[in-house]
Amino acid sequence: MAKEKKFLTAEHTAQIITEWDNKTIDEFASEFDVAPNTIRARVTKIHKKYPEYCPRKSRKTCDDIIDAAVRLVKERTQDVITD
Description:
There is one protein chain. By secondary structure, this protein is mainly alpha-helical. The N and C termini lie far apart (59 Å). It is elongated. The protein has helices at residues 10-19, 25-32, 36-49, 62-82. The protein is built from four helices and no strands. It has one domain (10-82).
């Protein structure tokens, strides 16, 4: 039995455009029950046709992740000291 293909509707596309800054590709894919590559392909087409929408998101570098982890550790340490 073949797997049913899922497609993005105009409503899905509008939601991607309006919520692009707040959600990840994986979150959209889960919500719309499609593969992440389906979202990536749609976003690429949107951005090619309308550059002001769905700008490229910067990737977190290893240093960004380490800095965030250190901030979390410091916050947790401060919480323990103040309690």
